[in-house]
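#struct-help
A.M.: can someone run this one for me? Single chain, 155 residues.
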Amino acid sequence: NRAGRNFNDVVNFLFSIAPCVCVGVGLIKKGNLFMAKILVVDDMHGIANLIQSILKAEGHDADVSYNGDQAIKKLEKDVFDLVLTDIIMPEKDGFDVVNYVREHCKDTKIVAVTGGGITISAPVALAALENKVDSTLRKPVNKEELLNCVRSVLA
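D.P.: on it. Structure tokens below:
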């Protein structure tokens, strides 16, 4: 089909001249990697902001929420490719965020991150989410571990 061939020619041309080109809802191609729209959810502002900075430096469009309630409000209004959420938080926690995403944002990937807390250990929290999330990370998490996990989940 000539129209289909012309469209493919245009797409290939754009990829050849532009370092990043939008190829879908939130996903952007940069080199051989797809950049994503990511929501980072953590009640510890410093950790949330650091993760956001690492993801932005990698080329992702990263937004932050500091509790589950804020995250769910953003998820009601916007589409994200990935939600990277802490589990133990005040107000609505990561369990609430995970359940909301699974019910309302079926195409959104989820990475659960926790160091545990007073009422639940990190291994128990992560095990409780094993069948609901795409991957898990245990705090403290380093930059390479974070980026490798994000790449793997988005692949």
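A.M.: thanks! Confidence is low (pLDDT under 50) at residues 1-5, 14-27.
D.P.: also worth noting: The radius of gyration is 17 Å.
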